């Protein structure tokens, strides 16, 4: 799952083509308004092994985990198992001469009817509903993920993401079952009295349907090629709508002003970064002695206990609950059925796509607290601060805890939120609280959700300490280099 996407391709004219850049994590960057005929191109989508896919957080064992995708998956499942698509007796099977598909004549008392069926490309056997269902889930997960990438390129306001994804999924279902022209991939077949040889326009597959036949017949073993073509066709059909999104984004500042753009903050950050060179922050994870040490530390242990308690309160009863992810950020709302209005907020393990549990989060928080305190002690020494340093050290750890559990001007990273309209706060027009994450919160999410690199283990504690000194300087004057 790739949540670090911020490369914008050169603008393209109305004819949408593919470039080599990947798309972006939401930011507060707003470029000069694009011309009325320019859109960024789609990213080149490379094939990957299943466990290396960027969208494994959307699926588990072939079943959908994302809330909107789950609705689309349920709709498809009901459709292929509905009365109009099922048959127990077949009077005649009309195979296509060159494509992996057939029309099944269904015996009915009132009138003749045929159903569109997909065949396996190799065995020519009919693809059964369970197999079609699993293939569909993989396809919509791929489409959803890469469409999200493209919406990031357009710097689309987060509030609009779900609406655009919903339109794409509705379009796909229409193209499968009831396309505007040509023959459907599945469902009720048109002109049942005619055979394939008639060459009637309604018995000819369009380009989109041909691609879907390749996918559902498993001639393609990876959904990427189908994803690329489907997105290209969809965007071409909705160019004006996406141009409007692109143009409106250039005039809208949705995300909070980045702390890193503040001159005063950068000055403090540079100084603390220099201090960090003399402090070991990227050593190996602590053993049992270090764990015992922090729990016996009267300054640090209360925060560890509070963090674990808050984390346990936000745990879900089952990991298979559907979720709603914040675009480009590894965090989600979990929709538990037994609590319709209270939704747990959980960070996500980037490498595995799974919810972050206390077995990972607890040691990460403990390590971050120790590194931050170690850096702070060195910083106080460099500033030649004498006297009572323990309260100042404690205030910093309290700041870290508050930045996770109850931050100002940001969604929390651990906890539960009241959601009454069935939508995640970031997709809800009626939600009254903050709908996004601050730059500090994004740094902390990165620390918890990604693999701990040497860079992250140093840079993130440095950023947190600088943010605290910038937000609430504990001294009347902080000496920093010119």
Short description:
With 482 residues, this protein is α+β, with helices and mostly antiparallel strands. 41% of the residues lie in helices and 10% in strands.
Report on this structure.
By secondary structure, this protein is of the alpha+beta class. It has helices at residues 67-80, 129-153, 158-177, 207-216, 224-237, 239-249, 263-276, 288-295, 301-313, 358-382, 390-405, 439-449, 454-471; strands at 11-12, 18-19, 39-40, 42-43, 59-60, 63-64, 90-95, 101-106, 113-118, 187-188, 323-325, 331-334, 342-347, 415-418. The protein folds into 2 domains: 11-249, no CATH class; 259-471, no CATH class. It contains 13 helices and 14 strands. Strands 7-8-9-10 form a 4-stranded antiparallel sheet, with no helix packed on it. Strands 11-12-13-14 form a 4-stranded antiparallel sheet. The chain has a two-stranded antiparallel sheet with strand order 1-3. The two termini are 41 Å apart. Mean pLDDT is 83; it is low at 3-36, 285-289 and 476-482.
